[in-house]
Amino acid sequence: MAKVEKAKLPKPEEISNIDYHPPATDWMDTPTEFKPGTYCWGAKEKDLLTLGLPNPRQWSPADEDWKLPEGWETTILDGIAERLAKYRSFKIFMDICVRCGACADKCHFYIASGDPKNMPVLRAELIRSVYKKYFTKSGKFLGRLAGARELDEKVLKEWWSYFFQCTECRRCSVFCPYGIDQAEVTIIGRELLNLVGLNIDWIAGPVANCYMKGNHLGIEPHAFKGNIESMCDDIEDMTGIRVNPTFNRKGAEILFVTPSGDYLGEPGIYTCMGYLMLFHELGLDYTWSTYASEGGNFGFFTSNDMAKRLNSKIYAEAKRLGVKWIIGGECGHMWRVMNQYMDTWNGPADFLEVPVSPITGTRFENAKSTKMIHITEFTADLIKHNKIKLDPSRNDHLKVTYHDSCNPSRGMGLLEEPRYVLKAACNNFYEMPENTIREKTFCCGSGSGLNASENMEQRMRGGFPRANAVKYVQEKHGVNMLANICAVDRAAFPALMDYWCPGVGVAGTHELLANALVMKGEIPRVIDLRGEDLPGKGGNE
Amino acid sequence: MKALLSFLAVIVLILIATLGVDVANLHFLFGIIIPYLAFVLFVGGFVYRVIKWGRSPVPYRIPTTCGQQKSLPWIKQAKIENPTTVLGVIVRMALEIFFFRSLFRNTKTELRVGEDGPKLVHGSAKWLWFGSLVFHWSFLIIIVRHLRFFLEPVPYFVQLIDSIDGMLQIGLPPIYLTDAFFLCAVIYLFLRRLALPQVRYISLAADYFPLFIIMGIAISGILMRYFFRVDIVAVKELALGLVQLHPAIPEGIGVLFYIHLFLISTLFAYFPTSKLMHMGGIFLSPTRNMMSNNRMVRHINPWNHAVEVHSYAEYEDEFRDKMKKAGIPVEKE
Amino acid sequence: MDTKLKDLIEEKRSVILERWFDAIVETYPLDTTGFFKKQKDRFANPVGHAIVQGTEGILEVLISGKELNEDLPFLNDFIKVRAVQDFTPAKAMDFIFLLKKVVREVLEKEIRQNQIYDALLSFESKIDDLALFAFDIYVKCREQIYELKTDELKRMTYTLLKKANLMYEIPAEEFEVNDQKCNT
Hints:
The complex is a heterotrimer of chains A (541), B (333) and C (184). By secondary structure, chain A is mainly α.
């Protein structure tokens, strides 16, 4: 059990005697501590059982004994050997780092905590040191001189702590002269941990839900439909228009997949209402699926196999329903997966057709193999062709800035499309400082499955660099709305903003679009999607 | 401490060469056997390492995208930072390899007080970029210059580089610019490792050792050229003999040369076992050398094994009643 | 405040701020690499930036003789940072008391020469007053972190709260159980 450190008030003379030079121990000699508020709960037995993952048991990271399986060292070392043979990336990244330090101050967790093990180079070194000991000659013979060390339980706990303090955001990879990607190292590190049953509850729970019920939140089909329909009620109140989406409908042209955060939590549901309104206005022939009701993929934070198991549903469902192509909603890591992994895992999608917008006729050649496009690509194309009518003045009470989600920016390059949509839907748009956006964007601090609530302190810390840049535009331009294209952002930012920049709201791009969207036959809008009064539109128009 | 150990290791190497040649008279060993051995280890080790990397497949196409993707025709794609063509990748890799593009990215933003209130100023932190660029380019040019010892007649491009490098015409023999740059750069890289607390903290003995050995090579080379001249003709005789595979030890080459040669041999032999392999590895880095055309062309994973999935049929079996009640279509009534 | 002491502090202001900054940075046991000190970029090093802003603002308030209250933005901003950095409450707040030590050290000679111990004492008790406000802010920050958790849970289950008939198992109980488990 974790002991809460008792707050012992130091005596005045103690305070004046604070040692200005704490001994700096070498990182290999610095033990890992588990303090409440800075780590996530361990994965639950029932979830690992559901998924058939190794070593299901009740355990807590704060316990001394993690109930590791017999012979776990061999499991881990064999796991490393297997992955070295399977991933050139892993092998190269283990071998060629020169420790130049270019990545060191690029990690948001390091920037905010100063903990050296949060420097990407050192986070990789946690596993590299073990690799050297068991897989290289120099490490075997020279040991610590070559930066090698034995694998023991302390090392494993350290891995667990720091691989679940990395949000796989890839910012370090942008600055590395060899493109060494800590996300890749973390992905493999987490795979190894999962071999001996070391996951976190916030990942394993959603994965088990998604596997059995189709989405992370475990929403069953009837409730899924109910949720969407209740949004349709709200849309009707606001616009006077009844939107009638369909579910699991065979023969629709398009399958729409979005992260489950969009149809349960606030403010995600407003983004979802935005999709519903836009598709209705276009008269789009599309369907939702209750089976493939999750765009996000927490399996990706467990292992590549697990990610593939969850991802398989999307193509399978597209095939079963006989749709022609797929649109994906606003989500960050979902799009890393859809863009860089889905086709390789579960393709080829030869039963689908190259996406062609039925409204503009634009053929999306960039998705000619996966047959899946991002909704901001779809919407940007509509706006460019003047196919929707927008009244951006409805967003005039908002001063908007845009947060690039890590994965769409560094694992895809979706930078201009959402900006184009936002600038069409809002009159007041301001960018954050240059080295905190686009490919250099700072993570929300809660990505890769770390948006639990028990680690709130850690999340506030990890998100500080991002919030700091938001605060800058808040002070300079009066920004009061942080737009984004990611469900984890929408879930995690409200807390981050409340803490660091109170007064800044959080919205998905399509929420703002739908606020501005002029629908055929709508009643004058006096409220926005949130049911709040629209300033200057006091119902007298 | 780690730096000191590495430094001592290099001193020991120098002593070995000095004693071996000067006291034990092992010219043959230090002039012929060790260089050959080092060369074989270097080439063999390098090839072995690259083949080993190459034998692991690249299961996923995972470029780090650093610019706008190719999507709609009217949105300008960053063709180099987010390449979808072979040419784009080649340019991206060339910028990375020849000009260290990613290190160049290191920017910083400062808030400075301007005339009308505070202003945001974008500056850059480019010392590491500059230092390593000077280091690597000087190193390359020096190696090319050294070809004049191994080739007869000396090719034109070697002569050209030689004369450009020595164009200042200061001193006799003329001072090579790269000698000065190289020494400064290697000292900078070393001091940086010591002075920046972050970098010092992550540095291993294995990071200092190559720096010291390279420093030793540079200093011994400079001493030989400008201060304690060695018999250049004899050196060339030895070098040509090594290249033409009938090695012989000419008389009268000073011990300084053997120290130089021994340090180079050590570096060569050490190279494939160390981080210096980044020279080969950078070409194979999947986040840089792949096209970002994931959604256009399917990437094949050679070990893409089947995984257990939860099928729609199983899903419907579990939820059929609830689905029917909610009016969601089902396969089996 | 005593004008003599005020002048002395004004005179040595940059030294005091620098030493105070260094002393605060030293309270980060994990920052063995000196990152907070080195990096001057306000976006690349927001923590260092908050320390600089906080120390300058606090010193200014102390010597200007302004009324102290909780509404000090720089104090607020800085304590927010300390509140999420893995410190015990005492450790999180000790940065204020470090100023006493720094002032005594920097002005040791001058204070002795000018015999202004009384002024020093009243200056120090002003620091104590400020520390009390700071502690209020700190507690608020910590409370807020717990509130954020409940707020987030509410947001996550927004539609469920709206439509209670579609309830699925909310992990609310588990949260509490877990909380207790790890806090005992």
